Predict the structure.
Amino acid sequence: MNSLKRYLKYVLFFAIVFSFGVSCNSDDDGNQGNCGNAVCTEEFRAFDVSVVNRSQEPIALDEFVVTWVESGRNLTLDYSQEDLEVYQASGMYPLISDSYLSDFRSRVISLTFEGYINGELVVDEDFTVAFDCCHVFLIEGDLEVVLGVD
């Protein structure tokens, strides 16, 4: 079963990479590709990391950081104290969204999500995401993190 999951991930990965070539014109405008002819849906895609305990109750992180692995660039979305309180109450923390499309169009990138409680690292998860001309896609990583606390 594990090998089937791995096979399906690779098939999905190559399908997305192939769609980059189909979705974008070959006359690139710099390194991001020219997606002027791409037909995109109006939806806005975003992925959140759910952090819960074994009883499926939300875990309130004091801080979280999203890092682009290849460059070390901090991709954590700006958030207010009120936003953080909403994240803490729901246990849902933003990972990546279409708002980064202009930075990563037609690319596959690796991300690390780190979550802290009282200054201690309690969540350290890796993700792979891909951007085409229109949206971000999750390639690899588990969006639900279950911590062994109740």
Q: What stands out?
A: Residues 1 and 118 are 39 Å apart (CA to CA). The first helix runs from residue 2 to 23. The mean pLDDT is 84. The longest strand covers residues 120-131.
